[in-house]
Design brief:
The complex is a heterodimer of chains A (265) and B (529).
Chain A: H1 2-25, H2 58-94, H3 96-111, H4 114-125, H5 129-156, H6 159-166, H7 171-207, H8 219-227, H9 235-264
Chain B: E1 2-13, E2 16-27, E3 31-35, H1 42-49, E4 57-65, E5 68-69, H2 75-81, E6 86-89, H3 103-114, H4 119-132, H5 151-163, E7 169-173, H6 181-198, E8 201-206, H7 209-215, E9 218-223, E10 226-232, H8 233-238, H9 243-252, E11 270-279, E12 293-303, E13 308-312, H10 319-326, E14 334-339, E15 342-343, H11 349-356, E16 359-362, H12 376-381, H13 393-406, H14 423-435, E17 441-445, H15 453-470, E18 473-478, H16 481-487, E19 490-495, E20 498-504, H17 505-510, H18 515-523
Parallel strand pairs in B: 3-8, 3-9, 6-7, 7-8, 13-18, 13-19, 16-17, 17-18
Antiparallel strand pairs in B: 1-2, 1-4, 4-5, 9-10, 11-12, 11-14, 14-15, 19-20
The chains are: A mainly alpha (265), B alpha/beta (529).
Chain lengths: 265, 529
């Protein structure tokens, strides 16, 4: 059962990553090409997912939108990892006041409702993919700092970190040589979960118009555009919605599976 | 009527047969010891009785408890049997309890699972059982949480959970292995009393023959999944027929090492002078400051080259704090540690790095002392970090191979990972790591406590040989007096942060002066009691 969830998650994730890569080179139609004559086609053999109110091919837009979602979510995870992990390692290695300052700083960020503050940031600095990445990335920092610190604290009680100290190594070197490699499994699992949350956050920001700007395709904006046409063409909202749902589900199954394996190991 | 009857039980996991055609019986009120080395299948037998084997295990044969056949019984019926008809106590008291639940509630939960009683009644039964196992008032009150209790007290809680429903059979799997000697003696006495008072059958699984001699009526010796010998305890311990039983018996008789004469007047390699270490305690009152806990209270000791010094004390006696100071992991608040004539406790930077080469350590847990992601080569070479110009490539490999050979492992093992080795082999690797910088002193922190008797005897033998050949000073920190007696030349006994007695092994063991030392020595389980 556990193995099935993990495998299904891995398969779904691989499928969407594959689509993202394919969209880099090829989509069935140009996702930005307008063709008013072809507007609001129901799904058929030419347009598998139909066309929107401007005659753009929905399948092509979803494929191109995957590129945008994956890019934003991935880069925001990278920000979280590169800032959060070192903070967590330092907090666990130094303890005391340093730990206290870092963790209370984390609590400060956690205290804000993340999506609201992301909206504030993009509203102040202007909408766009880059600002969305930064806004989502900031909220990944405390998550990675906590996971890293938690894993590291446990490892610091192991005798091998003591043995490394007897071998004259300082806390920084032990963190890099012993602690980080042994928390890597936890971090990869967490990164997968954060990646899925990033996709939801990006869709949310685009939905309110603060994500990637036209003509870049984005799942969130496709949903908000389809909203007014729900009665006329329900499939317009269905497909981007399903894309977000499936991708997030797949990533969560994958991440949970990895974390479970790591904990039982 | 026989309480527990096992008939031709076989268990295999995959293609490996773990228990072979085992037959065993326990009568009501009888204490049966099941003895064997780790991997002999004794714990699996205990699990098989409770039908708690891993799902992949295939079993044949029958287990009969009070006439009901447990093998092949449905899981829901088994849930009724476990706890009510047979209780179980495990080795590790730290993990057997739920850390977030009050101990009284944990015991009461067992009652409520099996009997339709009110919470109040269950709590009353829990409190009575906790009192029965010696946890009353003070530290043992039912509203305590597990972290507030010592290891021995937690094991008592685990025993309370197992016996609260007055099961006719109790299975105890290495219940005292994780405890220190005086706690061990108390827990064993408690188990024996319970079995006698309630006419309860007790199956005691252990690797320690001395424990068996102390408590049991009958013994079964297990080796590679089979019972190779069984009989009345007294008679069997006098004469074992099977070669494995004999080896086990010989290893259990750790005889005092003949004391070597030290070159008089030579300066000690390790010298500890009036070391004090205090921990601040949480303030209890707004108006009165809480005095700090003196974990180490003006302790002095010395270790000479080629000499083995035992440091004995129970958990909480301050021996671990002292060891951390000796290893320069912490600084003493007063006093001094001198290594090879230089001050280690005041050293910093490159001086500290140079001095660290002369003192290395072997830890207790053969599983936790290695980074699981590193090869043995890299692990053993780690202390080379202390050298100003560490050996590289071929030279590095040659020196690692050399120390591996010294501890009796093939040099090809350098390419393997720690999980590929047994506990005893890992402890050899740990010794190899300690030897690699050619130190003057090696500290052993309970280094053989986690090993079973045969392996322990081999490691002690190895240490004695290495110590004499390389003229190493050993500081052997342990709660196990028997082990210390077999390896040490001199002994320090530590209690509540102070050294209460010191002297040569013979003097301390034959004429202990301090009442605490006397109680420790009488608490050692004896083979010929």
């Amino acid at each position: 059962m556990k193995g099935f969830g993990f495998a299904a998650g891995a398969a779904i994730t691989a499928f969407f990553v594959g689509i993202t890569i394919v969209a880099q080179f090829w989509t069935p139609y140009d996702p930005a090409a307008l063709s008013i004559i072809d507007k609001l086609h129901a799904p058929d053999w030419h347009h598998w997912f139909g066309t929107d109110q401007l005659g753009r091919d929905v399948l092509s837009m979803i494929m191109a939108g995957a590129k945008n979602s994956v890019g934003v979510a991935l880069l925001s995870v990278v920000i979280g990892v590169f800032v959060g992990v070192p903070l967590g390692l330092v907090a666990a290695a130094r303890r005391g006041a340093t730990d206290e300052i870092i963790m209370r700083g984390n609590d400060l960020i956690f205290a804000f409702p993340s999506l609201l503050l992301a909206i504030l940031i993009t509203a102040v600095f202007g909408p766009g993919a880059v600002n969305a990445i930064i806004a989502i990335g900031i909220f990944n920092i405390p998550v990675f700092a906590r996971v890293t610190r938690g894993g590291a604290m446990q490892l610091w009680t192991r005798d091998y970190t003591q043995a490394a100290r007897v071998a004259g190594k300082g806390p920084l070197r032990i963190s890099v040589e012993h602690i980080l490699p042994n928390t890597a499994g936890l971090l990869v699992g967490q990164a997968t979960i954060q990646f899925s949350l990033g996709i939801i956050a990006e869709a949310g920001l685009s939905y309110v118009g603060l994500g990637a700007q036209p003509p870049t395709s984005s799942w969130g904006r496709m949903l908000s555009d389809a909203q007014t046409l729900t009665a006329l063409a329900p499939s317009l909202a269905l497909f981007p919605g399903l894309a977000v749902l499936l991708f997030v589900l797949g990533l969560n199954l994958l991440g949970d599976g990895m974390l479970r394996r790591e904990r039982s190991a | 009527m026989t309480l527990l009857e096992i008939e031709s039980l076989s268990v295999s996991i995959g293609t490996v047969q773990i228990i072979k055609n085992l037959s065993l019986a326990v009568a009501a009120g009888e204490i049966l010891g099941l003895v064997g080395a780790s991997g002999s299948g004794k714990s699996m037998t205990a699990l098989a009785i409770m039908q708690l084997l891993p799902l992949r295990a295939r079993t044949s044969g029958t287990v009969r408890l009070q006439g009901q056949i447990l093998t092949g019984m449905s899981e829901s019926a088994l849930c009724g049997v476990r706890g009510r008809d047979a209780g179980m106590v495990f080795q590790e008291p730290m993990t057997a309890l739920n850390p977030l639940m009050r101990i009284g509630d944990q015991v009461a939960e067992t009652v409520r699972l099996h009997r339709d009683v009110s919470l109040g009644e269950a709590r009353r039964a829990a409190r009575e059982t906790l009192e029965l196992v010696g946890l009353d008032g003070g530290h043992g009150a039912p509203d305590r949480l597990p972290y507030e209790l010592s290891g021995g007290q937690r094991q008592r809680v685990a025993i309370a959970m197992a016996v609260v429903l007055e099961p006719p059979l109790l299975i105890a799997d290495e219940p005292t292995t994780a405890l220190d000697v005086s706690t061990q003696a108390q827990v064993l006495r408690l188990l024996k009393q319970l079995a006698r008072a309630r006419n309860m059958g007790l199956l005691l699984v252990t690797h320690d023959l001395a424990v068996v001699a102390e408590v049991t009526d009958r013994v079964a010796v297990m080796h590679q999944g089979e019972i190779v010998e069984q009989g009345a305890t007294r008679a069997l311990l006098r004469q074992m027929e099977h070669p494995y039983g004999r080896a086990l018996l010989a290893a259990a008789h750790l005889d005092p090492k003949c004391a070597l004469l030290r070159a008089a007047g030579a300066a000690p390699v390790l010298e500890v002078r009036d070391v004090v270490h205090e921990y601040p305690l949480r303030r209890r009152s707004l108006w009165h400051s809480t005095p700090p806990l003196r974990a180490v209270d003006e302790v002095s000791l010395e270790v000479h080259a080629g000499e083995t010094v035992g440091l004995v004390g129970e958990s909480g006696s301050g021996k671990s704090s002292l060891l951390r100071i000796i290893l320069a992991l912490e600084r003493p608040q007063a006093g001094e540690v001198r290594l090879c004539g230089e001050s280690l406790s005041a050293a910093t930077g490159s001086v500290l790095k140079r001095l660290r080469r002369s003192i290395q350590v072997v830890f207790q847990d053969p599983y936790g002392s290695f980074d699981p992601r590193w090869t043995v080569q890299r692990l053993i070479a780690e202390p080379f970090f202390l050298l100003d110009s560490p050996p590289q490539n071929a030279e590095r490999r040659r020196r690692v191979a050399a120390v591996l050979e010294q501890v009796g492992l093939p040099s090809a093992d350098a390419q393997r990972y720690p999980h590929e080795f047994s506990g005893g082999e890992r402890q050899r690797i740990a010794i190899a790591r300690a030897l690699v910088t050619e130190p003057a002193v090696i500290a052993f922190d309970e280094a053989v406590s986690a090993l079973d008797v045969l392996v322990r005897a081999q490691i002690l033998q190895l240490l004695t040989e290495l110590g004499e050949r390389l003229q190493l000073g050993y500081l052997f920190v342990s709660h196990d007096l028997k082990v210390v007696r077999s390896i040490a030349d001199r002994i320090y006994v530590m209690k509540e942060g102070r050294i209460v007695e010191q002297g040569s092994v013979e003097t301390v063991f034959n004429h202990p002066r301090h009442p605490y030392t006397q109680s420790l020595i009488t608490a050692i389980p004896k083979l010929d009691g």
